[in-house]
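Researcher: Please translate sequence to structure tokens.
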Amino acid sequence: MDFSVKKLAADAGTFLSRAVQFTEEKLGQAEKTELDAHLENLLSKAECTKQWTEKIMKQTEVLLQPNPNARIEEFVYEKLDRKAPSRINNEELLGQHMIDAGNEFGPGTAYGNALIKCGETQKRIGTAVRELIHTSAINFLTPLRNFIEGDYKTIAKEKKLLQNKRLDLDAAKTRLKKARTAETRASSEQELRITQSEFDRQAEITRLLLEGISSTHAHHLRCLNDFVEAQMTYYAQCYQYMLDLQKQLGSFPSAFISNNNQASTASVSNASTSSSSPVTSSLLPSTSSTIVTPSLSDLKESSGSRKARVLYDYDAANSSELSLLADEVITVYSIVGMDSDWLMGERGNQKGKVPITYLELLN
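Model: Translation complete:
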């Protein structure tokens, strides 16, 4: 019990001495031992690394999971050392809605079929998003978090100890200056030698820890390369998925554009063939290759007939329409006063209206 009381009294005395020294330094009434320039630079580098690592880590989490509520939920589960429940992401949800809508409209219809194909692609992109988040969390976010919660906490602890040892040293110097008797002076000199030794030892420990920041930067650089590689894989997968989707949809977009946005199609065609717009041309290779020549709009304005290939099966709604089978070739022509979305179609002795969006004109 006596030992504990003495220890508490000594700790209280040390704390009071440090508080007095710190206050007098702030008021300019006491001298302060400055750290050497190399150690100061190392401390500054460590603090800078900590601040930017936190910012990069936080923004990466926002990029991978834009929903703040979901991030909070994941944080809580992580602190509880439990696995967060799996949830459907936005891409997968959109894909499922598209597939459900396509099945409702009918897989045999042009729109329904296209919705199902788009939905399947969106779900594949959703899977790619999951892979990106998982890989980035392991190879990039975790090492950054380990530095903040591990290495830097150790550095901060030793830095605080160094500050306390420095205050003890300067307090001892102040007491030596104020010593009046030989006995007090001898005691103060002994205290100064001890505090100087403890300060030098703590400065060396702190310096060795801080010099490890260069290794931390090298490690984070490797982690950054892993993150970039994960993003490259993700974007390459998305690009390939969209290319495959475009091939599956075939020339449906061109037929749709020809009938619903003729002006836009014409402007895109002009841009792709203009020598003064090489960037636009290079960005639209697939669009220019799917434009049908002559276009359905040209046929609407003429009195002639053309051969056309049927893109999708179509069931006639009434006796005035003509049922179609995918990939068959029929003859089509325009009649004055007919709705802009329809043409007259002939197959042998059969004749009836056919929807333009189901057709591809042949040269």
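Researcher: Any highlights?
Model: The chain is about 70% helix and 5% strand.
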